[in-house]
Amino acid sequence: MSSKVKVFIVDDSAVVRQVMTQLLGQDSGIEVIGSASDPVFALQKMATQWPDVILLDVEMPRMDGITFLKKLMVEHPTPVVICSTLTEKGAATSMEALSAGAVEIITKPKIGLKDFLTESSQQLIRAVKGAARARVRAARPAGTPTQQPVSNRPSAAMVKTTDCVVALGTSTGGTQALQEVLTRLPEDCPGTVVVQHMPEKFTAAFADRLNRLCRCEVKEAADGDRVRPGRVLIAQGGKHMQLKRSGAQYYVNVLDGPPVNRHKPSVDVLFRSVAQVAGKNAIGVIMTGMGDDGARGLLAMRQAGANTAAQDEASCVVFGMPKEAIAHGGAARILPLTDIAHFILQG
């Protein structure tokens, strides 16, 4: 890849293509090499110069974005940032896109589009630059079996008397990483709390999708939800989540507040609360993602006696958040993605 990130925009709205081209062109590290109104035209244009990152709409004529994305990930794996509307349908489609290999989501409203994109220009630029650093792998062939659960849990006599709490934090590439980990957990897995950087309204669709795939219960967290064995709570997009304790029981607070490390929900907000409330009865894992959110929180967890780990570089889509956590001293272990479920169940 050259010093400039080469971007191609695929969107059936001429206004979107024009505004995104202008906004991205303001950054000296990005070059928009072309745009098209649908994937068929895009493939013809990209044949002469292939981009580093593709900005892709999901609802288009002739070939929809999901079909194009699946074709792309088999024939020419390329980092893709999905541009999706802030609707229930848009959220569900975006989850399908992330599952098919997209690395990031940028949301757009149906009205006030130009003003919204202008106000979100820095988010758009960060998403493109993060995607450019992503390791995109070829899609698995259709029919690849789902992961078998990890079965080597400690015997009942070895289980701690206080329930263990697992805290997971991730960002770019995290939807696939979380699926890899959570589908390997048994139905009586430790109570788990998760922050995945994701826009508002999208986390409910994400949790629903995981709930259909996993043996344990997965749900979008609601204020006051109990953290208990067999349940995974996903932080709401646009809200922070903290762990609280009442007697011997853990529960979550879902609250508003300013972004932390440019994110809401923030991994640091969750991890710090877990360090304070659960201490040595917790396990913390930071996985693929751009930036440093969670690095200081994981260190706080480790200092409080929790067992901590970071995903290794080779298995990350973006080795940003784990790298920072390791540099800060928060990760007691560095593990490939395929070993994280085992790490969680060993406590």
UniProtKB/TrEMBL annotation:
EC numbers on record: 3.1.1.61, 3.5.1.44
Active site: 171, 197, 293
Modification 4-aspartylphosphate occurs at: 57
Domain CheB-type methylesterase per the UniProt entry, residue ranges: 159-347
Top-level EC class as recorded in UniProt: hydrolase
Gene Ontology MF annotations: phosphorelay response regulator activity; protein-glutamate methylesterase activity; protein-glutamine glutaminase activity
HAMAP family the UniProt entry points to: CheB_chemtxs (MF_00099)
Name of this chain's protein: Protein-glutamate methylesterase/protein-glutamine glutaminase
Species in which this protein is naturally found: Hydrocarboniclastica marina
